[in-house]
Each structure stands twice: as C-alpha cells, then as structure tokens.
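Hi R.,

Here are the chain sequences for the assembly we discussed:
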Amino acid sequence: MIESQEKSKTSGVAKWFDPRWRHSGTWAFILNRVTALGLTVYLYLHLVILRSLAGGPEAYDGFLATIRSPIFVFGELLVVIGGLIHGLNGLRIALNSFGIAVPYQRQLFYGLMVIAIITSVIFGVRMFTA
Amino acid sequence: MIETRSAPKNGEGAWLWMIKIFGGVLIVVILIIHLIVNHFIAEGGLLTYADVVRYYSNPIIPIMEISFLILVVSHSLIGLRSIILDLKPARSLLTAVNWIFAVVGVVSIVYGIWLVMSIVSQGSA
Amino acid sequence: MSQEKWKVTYRIFRKKGTESSKFEDFELEVSPDEYVLDGVERVWAFHDRSLTFRHACHHSTCGACGMVVNGFEKLSCITPIREITQNGGVVKVEPMRNFPVISDLVVDMGLFYSRMDMVGQRQVIPLEEEPTQAGIQTGPVERDGGYVRLSDCIECGLCISACPIVATTPAYLGPAVLAGAQQNGLERTPKLLDLVDTEDGVWRCHSAYECTAVCPSNVEPAWRIMDLRKQVVKAKLKGLFGGS
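And here is the predicted structure of the full complex:
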C-alpha cells in the first residue's frame, strides 16, 4: 500500500450542517438532525417544567399564565414545526428503509415538507389568534 | 497488512436501529392522538389543574401518555447516540455514553410515571 | 462537436509531498463539448508536466478519473465543460473527498479496494440480476425486460466522496462496499452478515442519498443499502427462530 502523505481528512461537525454542493437527500438529513436536537432540548425542558403539575393547582395554573406570553407561544410554534419536519421526514426514512418508495424519495421529501409548511402555517395562525 | 477497524461487534446496531425506527412511527401515531385529545377533546383544553386531573381519571389516558413517554425518551436517546457515533468516540467514551444514556432514560421514565400516577391519585382522592 | 470555443480558467488543486496545498490557475481555450478531463490533460501536456492525475479509458468504464468539479463529485471523462460552467467561467478541480491525498488529484484508494475485495465485489454482474425498467429486481428477470444501464460498479469512489457519514469517519464501510455486499446478497454469501451488521456497517447510513445522486454507473447504492438492511433483518429473525 502506498504511503500517503496525510491521513484522510474527516471533516467533523462543521460539515454535517453544510448544505452546499449537496442534493436534496442531504438537506433532509440536515433538517432531521437539526430538528432532532431541537426537539430533544424541548423534551427534557418539558419534562422538567411539568414538575409544576406535582405542585398542585396554584403551581400549575400559575405556570399556565406564564406560557401565554408571546415568547412561549413562539417557542411552542417552533416545536410544532420541528416536530412536523422531523416526524414526516422520519416516516419517509422508515418507508425507504423497508424498500418502499425509494425511487421516489426526492419527490416524497418535497411533498412532505410542503405538508409540513402548510400545517405549520395553520397551527401558527391558530396559536397566535387564539 | 491493510489496516482495518477493530473487530465488528455483532448485532449492536440492528436492534437499536429498529427500536428507533418503529418507535418513531408509533410516536407519530400517538402524537397525533395526543394532540387531538389534549387540545380538541379534553374539556377546556387542559388549561386548569382540575381539568388535568379529570382528564387523567380515564385509565386509557395514563396508559397512552406513559407509552408516549417511553417511546419518545428511547427514540431521542438512541438518536442522540447515533449522532455521537458520528463523532468517532473512543470505545471507552462510547461505553460511558451508553451507561449515562441508560441511566437518563430510566430516570426520565420513572420520573414521568411518578408524575402521571401522582395526578391520577389526585383524581381518586 | 461544435466549432464554438470558450475561454475558461482551470483552478486545480495542487499538493506535493509535505507542502501545504494550494490552487493554481490555468487559462485554457476549450470547446464546451469537450470533457473536464480533456482540459486537465491539456494542462498536463502543455502547461505543467508535474500535474498528477488518474485517467485511463475515457468512457466511464474504468472508474479512474473521479474528481470534485466545482464542488460536486463528477466522473471527469464524461462531464462536458458545458455542463459545469460557461464561457469565461472557472472549472475548479479537486481530488475526491474522504480519501488521503497522495499527490495533486490522486488519492489513496487502498483501503477502499481492500474493502471491495472483502465483500467479494464482482466486476461484472450477470444480466439476470440487473435492474430493468419494470422495476428494480433482486431476483432473476426476463431477458427482454428492457434493461436500464447496466449497474456494474466501476469502483470510482465518487459515492464515498459524497457520503456525509464517510466524511465523519473512515471506519464506515460506505456506499460502494455495502452496495457490493448487497449485490452478492446475504443468502449467497452469509459470511458477509458479520461484516455489514455492525455499527460501522449497514446501520450507519442516515439516508442522505448523496451516493445515488453522484453515481455515474447506475448502481443506486442508497436503495441497495436499504435492501441490505431488509436482508440483515431477515437473516437475524431466521437466526432467532430458525434454530441455527
């Protein structure tokens, strides 16, 4: 085997989220990973915050007053969007992984993201006008 | 001798991956049910403590919510582990990660079940 | 071949020995229907004899001339200049990603070839196992079923270059290797199960589909990795209940 001058460069985290010179499949991968991280943060925050439930009516109802503020509602909307993207794309991956619709994976991705966007808009309107 | 990676560990990837994928599909299903029930069917939309207690008095609800909890915690931890695998952790680091995630998972699930049961017990109080 | 002539700048990655890498510009007059590889050869012939690159058949059969052209993985012998730039534009040529660079555009394919050997990659796939327009088949197909281009992997390495998981670790077997294992099939070669059913094997794929997007030879590695997963699951279930 030829002696190479340098070890093959492995690019690490920066390259994970770099969509340049990449096709739609990579964008799906990036979206899935970003939403995964976001949703994980939300999950554990949610579990911690729900502790207020154990504190009885005053704690819970007081907490609910807090989450009506626009910042929280916006945060929740981000969770909804992230959940839609991650969930729908995840279903696509599940289907593909069992050999279903693989030749159409690109169209499926675009179609599902359109559904995600439309649903996000609907939720967004409902959440901010309620 | 061509350099190869260390001996493959049989089967480590397969079952975890399948739990993640099937778990993911189930999560989508339960999430839809969870959202519909929480926000459209439950009285008052669960906006007061009393509503929450009433909601949990139907036994299907704690079962569904606890299943949801187990599925989501497992899915997120297995997924996080996959992301960490992409960082090429040393074997010792990976073993530590496995243990930490297992503990976090168990603690989260136990905590969640305790929370649910404390609400359910309020209902029968 | 049209009479049209373009002026383009070839911006070529250079690296010799332990020097740090750099890009060198060469102004060329080309016909836009010529291929990227033709320009590289002209640079070597008339501008700089020290330029090192791989090429052989010039018709997408040998897999030697894989390069990254203007950011995308391409087989340079079949990539017309017209496809990647316009008159007055730049043709940026770099070696494939995720392989160690030996010199200029030449990379070390040793580990890759040894892995293709390990999975018993067959250079020529029998017609009975080729995909047809009727759909991708894994079993025997009818002789006149309308074959799409034959899917013989030419081991060019473009899929390895494009895969975001290979970019994180050379331990991952990668699309070409897993596709080769799938083409053999776990039923025919059960010893491959231990090789692919691992963390760095078939379960590492995150469905980015870059491999299929850049493959010049119709191998469709992404689908093959999915199919290999099905084969592994079947094999494992049989192992649980088949009493072996």
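Chain B touches chain A through 28 residues (CB under 8 Å). The mean pLDDT of chain B is 82.

Let me know if anything looks off.

Best,
T.
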